[in-house]
Structures are given as C-alpha cells and as structure tokens.
Design goal:
Blueprint lengths: L10 H17 L4 H15 L5 H17 L3 H17 L3 H18 L2 H13 L6 H21 L3 H17 L3 H17 L3 H17 L3 H20 L9 H20 L2 H17 L3 H17 L3 H18 L2 H18 L2 H17 L3 H18 L2 H84 L2 H16 L3 H21 L5 E2 H18 L4 E7 L9 E2 L5 H11 L7 E10 L2 E8 L9 H25 L4 E8 L5 E11 L3
Parallel strand pairs: 2-4
Antiparallel strand pairs: 1-3, 4-5, 5-7, 6-7
C-alpha cells in the first residue's frame, strides 16, 4: 500500500508526488538503484521544507527498496525516522503499515524482542488502517512472530502461529502468503526430523506457487522436495545414483536448477546449490557436494541471506565428517557457530555443536568432543523433546482434520443449494429443450439448403477452373512441338516430351478430384508443366522451385491447381516465343499456419502486356479469385492474393511478382 498523504501544501508538492509514483512504481521490481537515486534526490528536497507527511512517505518507500535488497539496517533507520514524522503529522492511517515493515527489518536482524514490540505497536494502530488492510496486516504480524519462534526453536508455538496465519490469509484470499507459510511449515517439520510431513508441506506450497505463477517459490519447493527425499533415504546409509529415490530427487533438483540458472537470481540459486550438495553427499561424491556448498555460500552472501549462509557451514561440516576430514569439519562448524549465535538460530546451533562433537571424537579429542556434546544436548533438550514433537504432530493433525470437515460441510451445503436450483430449473430446461429442438430443425433446413447451393456453385466453378488450366493454345503448341520433333527425327526427345505430357495430364486430372493435396504433389505437377514449356520454348528460360525447410511436403496440404495459372501467365505473357534468358522463381514459404507461394518472372511486366493477353490473364485471375473466395467461405480461413510489378530503385520494371497466401489445412 502506498503511503497516504493527508496534506498537500503547494502544486509543486503534487508534482513531486506524481514523480515519486511514476519512478518508484516502475523500478520496485526492476531497477532498485535508479529508484533509490530518484527517491534520495526527492528526500534531499523535502528535508529542507516543512513537509513531514510527504517526507515520511518518501522514507517509507525508500525503506521498502532497502528491504527488497536485504539492506535491513538502512531500512530500519528510514522506518524509525518515518514513524517519528508520521506521529507528528497526524498520519495514524499509515502507522500500522510502517510498524509492520519495521517488524520485518527487525526480524531479519534477529532482534526478537524489538520485533515483537513493533508488531504490538502495529496492532495498536490497526483500527486506523483501511478495513481491507487490517486482516492482511494482522496476518503479517502473526507471520513474523511465527518466524522468530521458529528460529528460536519454539516449534510448537511457531506451528500454532503459522496455522493461524493460514486461516487469516484464506479470509482475504491471500494465496501468496499461504504459499509462503506452507514453505515455512516444511522447515518446521524438517527441523524435528519429520521429513515426510515436510515434503507434504512443500507440495502444498508448490501447488500455490504454480497457481500464483511464482517461479522463485517453484524453485524453492522443487529444491527442498528433492533435498528432503535425499535426507530421508540417507538416514539408512549411502545411496546409489540408480536408487529410485535418488533418481526422483535428482530430477526435481535439476528442474529447479534449470529454472534458477535461467533467471540468475541469488535467492533462488542459493536454495538449489544447498539441496544439490545433499544429493552429492548422499551418493558419495564429496568434492561435488563441497563445490555446491561453496556456490551456495556465494549466492547467500549476494542475497544477504544469513540463514542460508549459515546452513552452508553446517552442510560443509557434515560432508567433511562423511569424507573423514575431521579437522576441516571442526573449522567449518566453528565458523557457523559464530554466525548462528549472531542471528540467534538454535536449530543450526544444535547441528553445528553435534558436528564438532562427532568430529572431535573421531580425532580422539575427548575434551573437545565432551564440551560440545554438552552444548548440543542443552540446545536439543530445550527445543527437541518428544512431548513437543507429539504436540506439533497433534496440532498439524487437528488442523488437517478441521480443514477437511470444513470442506465436507461446504460441499454438503453446495449440494443442498444445487438440489433446490435443479428443481427450480426443470421447467425452464423442458421449455428450453423444446425451443432448442425447433431451432436445430430450422437451422438444419437452412444449412442443408445453403450447403446444396454452395456445392452446386463449387462443382460449376471447379469445372470452369479445370477447363481453364491447360488452354487450347498450350495443347496446340505442345502438339506442334511433338510434330516438329518427329519431322526432325528427334525420336528420343519426342518420347520424353510425350511421356511428360501424358504424366502431366494424369496429374491434373487426379489432383482436380481432391479438395486438398500434399504440397509435394503440387510441386511435381508444376515441375512437369515447366519442363514441357522449357522444351517447347527451346529451353529459353530457367526456373527454380524453393521450398522452406519448415514445410513437411508430405503432410502439409493446399488446394490443387492454385499455383499453376500464375506460372502459366508467367510463361505465356512474361516469356516471348523467342525468349533466351527468361527466369521464373517459385517459392513455398511457411509462416505460422500459412503457406505463402510467390511466383516471380523477369518478363516485361503487367503494363507491357498486350490486349489479348490482358483478356486471358484477367479471365484466369478472375477464376482463381472466385475459387479463393469460395474456398475461404467453406473453410472459414482467409486466403489472400497480390499481383504487382517488380521494380528496381529507379522505377524500372523487372518483371511480375504474384504472392498467394494459403492457410494450412488443420
């Protein structure tokens, strides 16, 4: 929620506020550096004037940017200043929001008592917040409290708080908060060794992260699911890569890894590297495991996430113990202890104390082993007794049961409502059915009549089109060419010519029987047609047929004989009888679900065509246009045709270009 400004002193302030909205909203999720620079300049101006309300809002917005980049100390300073200004500027409606952000900064700093005090202050100002924000802020306060209890090892209290957050969030359909809470519940169950329950929680979180299209949480949950499957199986000893659990877990980890690498976000990569290290440790590849721990630590520092950084020390110590390098295990664990004490993480203190004790015992250093075993048991007993675990499981079971009962009750109520609605709709359905049947009968007769008319027109047009394909001039010219070959006693060429001519006749007759034919059949007919004309014109022109690689010539289909009339025009009107350097290029291209056919020649162009040729060309073009219109209407797809002169930069005509766009048959 953007800060509410109650007082605007001058028009200049309105302008500054508009600038603030424009720049910070654009950069909040994109360029934090640019947004911070803009706000810094605005804050410098406001600090020289008596504009406490707007200055408080600017500080709040800058604190949000600092929180986004995990600069919690600067966020804390800005929020303390903003709260002081808000109290003097009568901005009670903003204070709950300010205190909630202050609580987040304190939680990240590990200041538990101060964080709870900030949440108490937030609750005291909730009544001044807009009604729709009150539940959201109350849920957020509970969430922060649960996180602190979780970190302190008070898992039972944390679980109760998390479940309450889910209930509040469901009231306002805040599925992003629910997604995050299930992730935290997975951590709680993992902390007490209940890996199956942890995986169930991650699966719930994954469901909501997919619904919310939140890629970061998809990465988190896939990583954690894979890691915890490995941890569960690893309890029974080292795994083989061919173990079904290892295969399943590795698949989840690789999916998460690919997503994280593609997005290159430290907060996602740290999770993936952390869980990959568990996999490689479990299958005995310790060097790869440590390499992933190193990457995890680097990404954690980039993300300023001390908890994940802390986990890297615990992971490294555990791997060194499995590898038998106990001195390095102790070194890593002691570095982790310092960080765990700094942020107050009892869960990781327990793990690290255990690692040091085990490693020291293996090195026969009894004194050090005993010292850290005592520390380990002290922490363990405070957070990990059997009674607490049972109570947590009871709470989880109770929540699941209540949720299922609520769902059953909701379904029962819906069934009753549906029963009433069905009984009321029976008469409407009966009347509607009768009207529908009458409408169907009417539409059927209309359709049948129109279909019969369309079929008749199509048959007539196809007959006209078929008769127009090989005009009498072509047949006459072909026979004259045969006669000439015979008189010249060129028996071989005469045989080739007649064979190709008869094949072309068969192809035309066969293709004309089908509404659609494969592109390879159309190309075969065009090649025979072009070769006959080349032979007739003493090879006075060359031609090329180019087919886009994306076209499947056997499967992609187009209407037959759509291209041939334009090739005929290119030969008859673009190639004079004495032509010696003619050129015809035909292209079949595929764009989306459309086949584009282009026919280009290097003839004299449209403007140079004489009157008789114009008449025949217009007739042929008109017939193909009629066929295109009929095909478009019957197939519900639009075909397009464009004929134009090809010209160079000086406007000189170089030939004719025909472009025909044909939708692919489904």
């Amino acid at each position: 929620m953007f800060c509410l400004v109650h007082r605007v002193h001058t028009q200049e302030l309105v302008s500054q506020e508009q600038v603030l909205n424009h720049f910070t909203d654009a950069y909040l999720l994109q360029d934090h550096t640019a947004a911070l620079t803009k706000i810094d300049s605005l804050i410098t101006v406001k600090e020289t004037k008596e504009n406490s309300d707007l200055l408080a809002c600017l500080l709040e917005r800058r604190s949000q940017l600092y929180l986004n980049i995990f600069d919690n100390d600067k966020a804390y300073d800005d929020l303390k200043h903003a709260i002081a200004l808000a109290k003097t500027a009568d901005m009670q409606a903003n204070l709950a929001d300010f205190y909630s952000k202050l609580g987040l900064a304190l939680a990240r700093k590990g200041a538990s008592d101060e964080m709870f005090a900030a949440i108490d202050s937030m609750n005291s100002y909730l009544e001044f917040s807009p009604p729709e924000k009150q539940i959201e802020q109350r849920a957020f306060g509970k969430y922060l409290g649960a996180r602190m209890l979780d970190r302190a090892g008070q898992f039972e209290e944390a679980l109760e708080a998390y479940l309450e957050v889910i209930n509040l969030s469901e009231e306002i359909s805040d599925y992003k908060r629910i997604m995050d809470v299930y992730l935290q519940l997975g951590f709680v169950n993992k902390a007490i060794g209940n890996f199956d329950k942890a995986i169930e929680s991650y699966e719930e979180s994954l469901y909501y992260s997919i619904q919310n299209k939140d890629t970061s949480y998809i990465v988190y949950n896939l990583s954690l699911m894979g890691g915890d499957r490995i941890s569960t199986a690893f309890l029974n000893g080292q795994l083989s890569k061919n173990d079904p659990t290892a295969i399943n877990a590795y698949g989840e980890l690789q999916r998460a890894y690919r997503l994280a690498i593609e997005r290159n976000k430290p907060n996602e990569l740290e999770f993936v590297y952390s869980q990959l290290s568990k996999y490689y440790e479990a299958v005995g590849e310790y060097e790869k495991a440590l390499e992933n721990v190193k990457n995890n630590r680097i990404q954690s520092k980039l993300a300023n996430n001390k908890e994940t950084e802390l986990s890297s020390y615990s992971s490294a110590a555990g791997i060194y113990i499995e590898w038998g390098r106990y001195d390095l295990a102790i070194k890593e664990a002691k570095l982790g202890v310092s960080l765990a004490e700094e942020i107050g993480s009892y869960f990781y203190l327990r793990e690290l104390y255990s690692h040091i004790s085990r490693a020291a015992d293996s090195l026969k250093n009894t004194t050090l082993a005993y010292e850290y075993f005592r520390k380990y048991t002290a922490v363990r007993d405070s957070i990990y007794d059997e009674e607490t675990i049972n109570r947590i499981n009871e709470l989880q079971t109770k929540y699941d049961t209540e949720k299922k009962e609520a769902e059953i009750q909701s379904l029962s109520q819906k069934a009753e409502i549906q029963s009433l609605e069905i009984s009321q709709r029976n008469l409407i359905i009966l009347v509607g059915t009768i009207v529908f049947i009458l409408a169907i009968i009417t539409l059927y007769f209309i359709y049948a009549q129109r279909h019969a008319t369309k079929q008749r027109k199509q048959i007539e047009l196809e007959q006209r089109f078929l008769r127009s394909q090989l005009n009498p001039h072509f047949i006459s010219n072909a026979l004259v060419a045969v006669q000439s070959s015979i008189l010249e006693k060129d028996i071989e060429n005469t045989g080739i010519y007649l064979n190709r001519f008869s094949r072309l006749m068969r192809e035309i007759l066969e293709n004309s029987r089908h509404e659609l034919i494969p592109i390879e059949d159309e190309i075969a007919m065009l090649q025979d047609y072009l070769e006959l004309n080349r032979q007739r014109l003493k090879e006075g022109f060359e031609y090329t047929i180019t087919v886009d690689e994306s076209i499947d010539q056997e499967l992609d289909q187009i209407p037959p004989m759509f291209v041939q009339p334009f090739v005929e025009n290119a030969i008859e009107h673009g190639m004079p009888p004495d032509v010696v350097d003619g050129k015809i290029d035909i292209y079949f291209l595929k764009k989306s679900n459309t086949i584009q056919v282009i026919v280009e020649d290097n003839g004299a162009g449209l403007s140079a065509t004489d009157g008789s040729h114009v008449k025949r060309q217009s007739l042929s073009t008109q017939i193909i246009k009629e066929r295109i219109a009929l095909f478009s209407k019957s197939s519900k797809e639009v075909l397009s045709l464009n004929i134009e002169d090809l010209k160079n930069e000086d406007g000189k005509t170089l030939g004719v270009k025909v472009a025909l766009s044909i939708p692919l048959a489904a």
